[in-house]
Description:
The protein has about 270 residues and is of the alpha/beta class.
Amino acid sequence: MSNHGNKQRALSIYEKQQLLKYGLSEAEFLKMGEMPVEYFTGRVDFAGLTLEVNQDVLIPRIESEELVDQALDFAKSCPKQQLRILEIATGSGAIALALINKIQQLNYLTKSWEFVLTEISAPALAVAKKNYQHLLAKDINQDKIKVKFILSNLLDEIKPPPPFDLVLANLPYIPHSAIKSLGASVKEFEPPMALDGGETGFSLIASALEQLLEKQLLADEATVILETYHLHDQRFIRRNFSFLFTQFEIQFIKDQFNRQRFLHLKKISG
């Protein structure tokens, strides 16, 4: 892919650092136009891991590291000794694998952990599996931490029991009409199916939540932690998806940049 026009863009300090780190040519990178440097190097640093990425998967952002920390806080405080954790639409595996890595590093192994990672895209799931094999499989305590990968459209291939204690997801949440306003590095290179959340941006999120409830996949007082669009506030959900307030205690959390990003839903018992 050629650079747009004849004007050569200036590289950021981060881009220069990444190219130097992997011994790659600045000139060759510039020929790729607006390609994110992570796709050019095939690597991204995320929450203490260096993950492999390609254009089959979304590049994990720094804000998603906060989701990992929120999940870890839940895991630490949960009194259960056996926890089942589901990640929907795992992509590169970044969120779940970073959480597993932290659990192992912090030696939270008095508990047993079962992770199930789903993904609709076979090429993306292959990336997640490869990251797991290269980064974690040899080192984790596999008696205490079990990891399973499932090719599935949302939760179609997930069957109870037992239910899950924690569900994580960074599903596509950008409204279709907003896709065209994204930067070229995003809309021209990252997989559209990982970005487009339908008319309101909440379509896939709502479908996943409906499946969790209909298939009885949530344990009593289970928690669901999602990344969402900044306009998916309490008024939006009450107006469009009021059923969620009858099923969950709902909390909205801002990210480190003071932008509303995370949605916590705790299942109401009974």
